[in-house]
């Protein structure tokens, strides 16, 4: 019974933003928002997904999460066009001058509609309902009612289920129903097109309905005072829980959560309607009264059993309220740092209704699942996707590309290609972001940066791309851009964790660790689930060499975010720095289980085995690391350090030639480093190439005079140099003999008869040189001193 | 009609702008040219049909005189067809813009506008701009190094053993670091970034390119970049590739020369040029496609000889040959003068330089060498005149600064001299001779550490500069770090195996580190190379001394005798060495009881410290007593 009730309330919820369509003026803007402007109107699926769409809209606008707030802003912006348009498009104007509206309407379909209808005398409502854009044109309250009826009417199976419940819930509403019924005979949800076209006239509505229309319009245009004023009157007049709910909705939207809570609890509304209960919980979460919120939503899903049976059948296209409640529960648990339960709740939310992207996003973005779990979840959702009809493939692909990039890369790529080819989403933010994430996991920061910049050009403060972008900037050391970005963010989103993450990253780049730590901690206080800030916070300790602090910070991060391997990797690195290799190995193995192809991790593992003198293992891991960065640009820091480590491994293994080759490649691509030259010098010394050894050691010392190893090696090499015999093999002798022949000719050419070289008289002079040469020698020697 | 008119105007404006940009840059009005080119590129793309429509006389064209129309078209055609290096029209416009920006030294901007080009020539242009822009920025950092990092005071109290980690070393490190930081700007050097772009371009397009100048230019650039990355072998192969496509790029030959650091490499290169090198006939016209006829190869051989002092006979031959072609080419004369200078024939070199200056008075190239000659020959007044003259021509040429520095050095004003050398280096950081000479100045000021740093820079830039290596050896000798100095003398000696002084220095060094065998070998080699082996008393005495140390008295005696005999050749001129040799011989003979001879030797000692003379007298007295 409850279940049925729920489904109806879903409708209520989904109808809520629709209510604006009641006002003819809003109609255009909804068309703009609506996802199927050009699509075939009137089909059931259309209506469904439009509602789904708008539900998310409603949630995002009011959502407590600051990050979604941004998204909400965008929505609001697009919606906020409507008030301006409304003047030009108001029915009055349209009546007098239909051509103006036709031109001002952005949608081609609608243009066609205008042309089709042709009769400017009709109100826009009629004209559109004629074109069978049915439901959206009708005031939602009316529609809700009518739909409720339909539930009973056409579909036998549903109706049976409905019947008992309806009696209960619809009883209070029946009063209003009458008016609606009188006027709207119009829609059937089951038919593909609205066959019956209703002539619709506002003037036929009852006075209460008119007030409701007024209230909804005010709410939609964010005129909260008006909405509150009217809503209050309606509620007092009717005492209907539904009207109370709407009043609470107004309070919530205007940010007065506490008033909403009071309203909802006072009349025990939360026990009457689940919708009210949901709103109450939402308000409580906003007020950070998590315990109470948990009481309201319950500690676990009360509908768990029933859900399984009914879920499949109920395919009305909206998001099930049950799912939203689960999501809310997850949020509450997350806020209480109960990550396991939160994870379970989110998972449940997604499983109950796959359309609940919010929960899915929460799971992925906060790295609550390990990559394997993520892919398992997708498997589990397989059957759910099938409920999405036409959009099944697309949504599945969209979800797929959001998953961890550590596993099943081919699947991700497949999904991406499919989205690009079949759904023409190539330039969509999410597609681009997935590409950027792939680049990021492959350490291709330059490419990643490019893509991020493309995205940000369109949407400057996209909260999902910014962390990626910031870390790319950090990797590339672009402090100037970071500076600008941080300032922009701080001006616009002073209360957002990303802002302070960006500021902290800037301080990291300019190596002001203290400041960086301050801002990292600020960022993680603002959003305790923001993984990058935690990691950055731990990094600041690691950089300063405070290993204990760093380890504890990393451990926390590892506990919070099982989905990323980085905390474990860094923990391993810290333990390695402390020379506790067994622990380091353990953590590396953990990280390796999560993400086996990260070059950074492979490199660290190689280094660890190198330090443990397990050289062959070290070589193997380093080679794999090198493989992983193969298509990477060879000048990047990562690939250079891997090459270096590999070269050292070769050196220790006594494979001198290979080591030399590696070091040489390093020198070609990276800036000059003293230690590299020193190692090369050492290797040349080993291979008995004394000259080269000395040269390289000298270079090493010229880069860093305090390089003790190089100094010792050089001394050794020079001593060897002294004791080397000046025999026929000595390069000096070889060289000088090479010149012997030339020298003879030089001597003989002096004695040669003057060559005829009229203007220069070269040879003649050569002959003369005999005398002055001696003197010149002395002078030159002086010059040299 | 109206739009036709518009189009016609557009075409007209476009062709006029194009023409003006070209002409203005031809006559070096760079800023005007830049303005025109920018305006040109700011115009909309012409639809391809436009040309056709303008060629058909439209209503507007009828109003105009038909003649003018024809001129315009022909003008446009001539511009596009004759002078566009095979570029399409839009590429040509881009080229105009890029070249004018280049002339105004706005490299970054130039590279930005060219970022998407595919034509090899334009690609070269773009990457070359990238490189120059980087180079410019590096030079900016370099200046600060010169003014702050190279402070003599810092280096005076450096740990003499050179193994401590004291503060002054950190200063040196600091002076080095900007150089590194500039190359590794963020975390990778721009050079490798440019190189990567170039490689990927070459990889993708090389198949489609016919071997035109574009390819040659790209190879040349690749060579330069590889050389900057210390990858000389690769760099050389790309320079050679570039030259085989297009041999008349003298800068490329010079870069190739710069890749060589040892004389034997030069011989190998000549061999390669003679036997394996081949020239593309498309760009090297007519007889110039033949390696033996190609004038550039012959020039290159000449310079190679100048740098590495190879076979003189060949050199004379080449010079004569080239002189036939270019009787009035100052460069040839200068090369000849440099050769004579390298053979230390300063008199002739000076007169050759005189000729050069007379024939081309405002040519400042190589005149720093001329000033070196004047300095060594102590012709101070002439040096002063040269310094004055060149300062009037151009104060801000590195050559001028070197000359002025030499002038101050000759007047013993070493601080000022160093200042001018520094200025020269600011103007051209790759001026090896300035580094070396500055090192000499620091030696004069007894600041060995600063001197060493200078010499090091010199050999970093040009490893063929034997003077810098020699200077390093000497400086370390002063610091009693003979192991180091030995190594550097070896280096110098490798470069100048026919120079007696190198072997002599090497020998002295070997003797100091206690390796007498090698010391003897080196002295003997020096003696071989000495033009007057019988007159070099120093070497002879040292040899004798060393033989005594290893207890080979026979050889020792032989050389002592030879040393004494030097006096015969020098008409009785007595040096310290001959005196000492005499004393030694006197003692030796006295021991052997050959008192007669001992007496003769002892009597001959009239030169030396009072102690020595006393000793000689005592021996003489003793001997006389014994004889009697």
UniProtKB/TrEMBL annotation, chain A:
Mark out the compositionally biased spans (Low complexity).
Answer: 42-54
What is the scientific name of the source organism? Zygosaccharomyces rouxii (strain ATCC 2623 / CBS 732 / NBRC 1130 / NCYC 568 / NRRL Y-229)
- Give the UniProt record's GO annotations in the biological process aspect: anaphase-promoting complex-dependent catabolic process; cell division; positive regulation of mitotic metaphase/anaphase transition; protein ubiquitination
Keyword Cell inner membrane part of the UniProt annotation: no
Name-wise, this protein is ZYRO0D00572p
Ordered alphabetically, the record's keywords are: Cell cycle, Cell division, Mitosis, Repeat, TPR repeat, Ubl conjugation pathway
| Family matches, as PROSITE patterns | TPR (PS50005), TPR_REGION (PS50293)
Cross-referenced InterPro entries: TPR-like_helical_dom_sf, TPR_rpt
Spans annotated as Disordered: 42-73, 151-183
- One Pfam assignment: ANAPC3
Q: Where does each TPR repeat begin and end?
A: 497-530, 599-632, 640-673, 674-707
GO CC terms in record: anaphase-promoting complex; cytoplasm
The answer to keyword Transcription regulation applying to this record is no
Domain of life assignment: Eukaryota
UniProtKB/TrEMBL annotation, chain B:
UniProt lists compositionally biased (Basic and acidic residues) regions at: 156-172
* InterPro entries recorded: APC8, TPR-like_helical_dom_sf, TPR_2, TPR_rpt
| Segments forming a coiled coil | none
What protein am I looking at? Answer: ZYRO0C11594p
Compositional bias ranges of the Polar residues kind: 145-154, 173-189
Annotated segments matching region Disordered:
145-189
Which organism encodes this protein? Zygosaccharomyces rouxii (strain ATCC 2623 / CBS 732 / NBRC 1130 / NCYC 568 / NRRL Y-229)
User: Which domain of life, per UniProt?
Assistant: Eukaryota
